Amino acid sequence: MLRSAVALLSAVLMFAGPAEANKVFVTNERSNNVTVLDSQSWEVIATFPAGNRPRGITISPDGKELYVCASDDDTVRVFDPETYKELHTLPSGPDPELFALDPSGNPLYVANEDDNLVTVVDVKTRQVLAEIPVGVEPEGVAVSPDAKTIINTSETTNMAHFINASTYEIVHNVRVDQRPRYAEFTADGKKLYVSSEIGGTVSVIDLTASEPAIAKKIGFAVPGILPEWLQPVGVKATKDGSRVFVALGPANRVAVIDAAKDEVLDYLLVGQRVWQMAFTPDEEFLITTNGNSNDVSVIDVKEETVIRSVQVGEQPWGVVVAPN
Amino acid sequence: MSDPRLALAVFCAAMLVALPLRAMEVKAAVLRIDRVVGPPISRLDAPPADLGFAGAMLGNEDNRTTGAFTDTDYTLRTQAVAPDKAAAALDTLKAEGFGLITVIAEGDILKALSDRAGAEVLLLNAGARDETLRDVDCRANVLHVSPSRSMLSDSVIQFLMWKKWPRILLIRGSHPEDTLLAENYRKSAAKFGATIVEEREFVDTGGARRTDTGHVMVQKQIPVFTQDAEDYDVIIAADEAGVFAPYLPYHSWDPRPVAGSAGLRPVSWHAAQEAWGATQFQRRFEKLTGRGMREEDYQTWLAMRVIGEAVMQSGKTDPASVRAYALSADFELAAFKGQKLTFRPWNGQLRQPILLTDGRVTVSVSPQDGYLHQNSPLDTLGIDAPETACHVFGG
Questions:
Q1: Which of A69, A136, A181 to mutate to test the interface with B (most CBs of B within 10 A)?
Q2: CA terminus-to-terminus distance, chain B
Q3: Which residues of B touch A226 (CB under 8 A)?
């Protein structure tokens, strides 16, 4: 009786409130678990074991399945986002680190660093559909908004590979700076951002012509920080196409970029060794994982300020927010 | 008009016009000069037959994978010869069209090879650590991917200063290379404010290194050898010849840590390194060879990757273009050390962080925090531009 009253009250509050509360899932690479936060209260609401060395994390569009790269288990673990119980595993190849889900929720594209392959996994049948040979040490994976192109960045070949999502063939290769880590499309599919951790740049690739071409390379400079430590990793673009946020690793900053001009507007101080990021569904907040300070920072996207940090497990790596 | 070079140029130009879409071809070689040496003190350190070659093979594989996307074909030749066959081996490689040659050899041999090779060949030094090769005896046709002795000694002293262990008992061996290494430790100590409170020489009296129950003698000899030293914080062993340093830890008269040629060692690489994405790199190497990666392998891998990056970025395969791109401000290489590696354009030395290892884990990585430089913190390791005697690079 009491519980249903609380549930009813919560439902009313949620309806009235400015934003829905969503679950935020953070993988903790060292403590081998996932921390669950509430995106309204920013309280830790649960912690559950997630296999050995959990890193990349994503969730199905319907919010029913949570996918975690358990790197040292050489598998992708699938969890129920409500009960936190492991449902099953997916074949991933050795040492999965990052992956991307097709916008429809199937298939899953997994980068296998050891074998220079991108593995395509059907999340329903749990079968490997294809293995696509790419450059040395594939890392970042992205799927275009129209789901027709898969991007993979290879860290030692230093390219963004453009893969046709129906034939699984590489159609273009774009050279970028050293150690490309992450690829992010704009919502309109007209631009692709690729971060180069060691090169210290973000390449802006124009996709409007017949061949993709680098339109600009964005560099970074923060007074008092050695240029060597400005190492771009995670990249997130807002849906309205106005802003791009870039996590700068050991510089402990997130760069705010004006996406119209592709120029840096500001640097936000977050926790130590900032790695990956995720928006809440309404893009009110951006959450960053800070691997060396064992916390996440919460950025108010509109105000472009850090509003708080929340302690999570040891060495947080990846983050995803449940859909509405 | 009978100039054969002009005729060749015209011929090449004709070929280029005729075959505009021909794939690029890169021919790289590794030449290892093996001197006959006795077994190392620890049999764990015995060199594998493919030392250095295996690293180059991995680098070549990496280049080939990338080359598949850029229509560039890479071939690799590996060869080990005795010192008296070094010159002939170089001549043969040159004659067969290998213009990018990575060399693992001692300093005097590398110097002789670089003088013989001529300007049309680019040598990549993946072995010799001699300071003079990067200084008074530097050659314009040599790039050094292996760190110099002073980069290694500086990296140790920086760490000791960070630890506030500035008082050093320096123990050097009696071989010429030990003398050179000891000299570098003296210079590094002066550079960073450490004090060599006393220096002792461990004379190599020859004899077999492998004897039954040898440890009984060691346990008696080393305490006596290290007795009555001035107050010190740490022993530094300068034993490049590999005669005594591994015997120092636990046997010194005073309970003090050991660094240098034993204990905490400065290395370009070791098989336990995992930071900065190195785990996948180590696994790829282990899959290829069935063993852990050694310094020589990392250095030859670096040499292949320098070639691969320069070719991919410049679109040219000839040694002069590879050299020019490698020394340009555009060159940068990710090599699992947390920051990009670049060349010092004034002497052809690859800048790189140095790992400090106890043999099992990475204890620290130099340069240490707080050692700053107007150009790059990496330039706090080794000879810097203002003090160089190398001028053939136009510096």
A1: A136
A2: 37
A3: 377
Query: Which amino acid makes up residue B188?
Result: S
Is the Cβ pair A114, B312 closer than 8 Å?
A: no
Q: Of B326, B373, B381, B374, which Cα lies nearest the Cα of B353?
A: B381
What order do you get walking across the sheet with A201-206 strand by strand?
Answer: A180-185, A191-196, A201-206, A213-218
Contacting residues for A217 by C-beta, under 8 A, at least 6 apart: A177, A201, A202, A203, A204
C-alpha to C-alpha distances, B60 to A55, A211, A318, B220, B306, nearest whole angstrom:
30, 29, 33, 49, 11
Helix, coil or strand: residue A237: strand
Within 10 angstroms of residue B176's Cβ, the number of other Cβ atoms is: 10
Q: What CATH number should be reported for the domain holding residue A243?
A: 2.130.10.10
- Does residue A257 fall inside a structural domain? yes
User: Could you give the angle at the alpha carbon of B378 between the alpha carbons of B373 and B379, nearest 5°?
Assistant: 55
Say how far apart CA B23 and CA A193 lie, in whole Å.
Answer: 30
CB B312 to CB A175 under 8 A? yes
Whether residue A218 is contained in a domain is answered as yes
Whether residue A269 contacts residue A285, with contact meaning beta carbons closer than 8 Å, is answered with no
Domain that holds residue A122: 23-321
Angle at A71 between CA B366 and CA B291, to 5 degrees: 60
Q: pTM for this one?
A: 0.89
Q: Is A57 exposed, middle or buried (0-12, 13-18, 19+ CB in 10 A)?
A: buried
- In chain B, whose CA is at the least distance from the CA of A162? B69
Report the SS3 class of residue B165.
Answer: coil
- Closest B-chain CA to A133: B65
Q: Residue B266 in 3-state DSSP? A: strand
Q: Is residue A8 part of a domain?
A: no
User: Contact B65/A173, CB-based, under 8 Å?
Assistant: no
Distance separating alpha carbons of residues B262 and B264, to the nearest angstrom: 6
Alpha-carbon distances, residue B109 vs B124, B178, B260, B303 (angstroms) = 13, 18, 25, 19
Chain B positions in Cβ-Cβ contact with residue A170 (cut-off 8 Å):
69
Q: What is the pLDDT along chain A (324 residues), one digit of tens a residue?
A: 455 555 555 554 444 445 679 999 999 999 999 999 999 999 999 999 999 999 999 999 999 999 999 988 999 999 999 999 999 999 988 888 899 999 999 999 999 888 899 999 999 999 999 999 999 999 999 999 999 999 999 999 999 999 999 999 999 999 999 999 999 999 999 999 999 999 999 999 999 999 999 999 999 999 989 999 999 999 999 999 999 999 999 999 999 999 999 999 999 999 999 999 999 999 999 999 999 999 999 999 999 999 999 999 999 999 999 999
Cα A2 to Cα A7: distance, rounded to the nearest angstrom: 9
DSSP for residue A272: S
Amino acid letter, B337:
K
Residue type, A222: V
B329 contact partners, CB below 8 Å, separation of at least 6: none
Q: Has residue A2 been placed in a domain? A: no
d(CA A78, CA A50): 9
The residue with tokens 């229509």 is B71
For B182, the token pair is: 């000891």
State the Cα–Cα distance between residues A54 and A186, nearest whole angstrom.
27
Task: Give the Cα separation of A70 and A91 in Å (integer).
Answer: 11
CB contact burial B363-392 (16+ within 10 A = b; e otherwise) = ebbbbbeebeeeebbbbbbbbbeeebebee
Q: Do B334 and A228 touch (CB under 8 A)?
A: no
| Count of residues making up chain B | 395
Backbone angles phi, psi at A84, to 5 degrees: 65, 15
Number of domains forming the structure of chain A: 1
Q: In chain A, which residue's Cα lies nearest the Cα of B314? A: A175
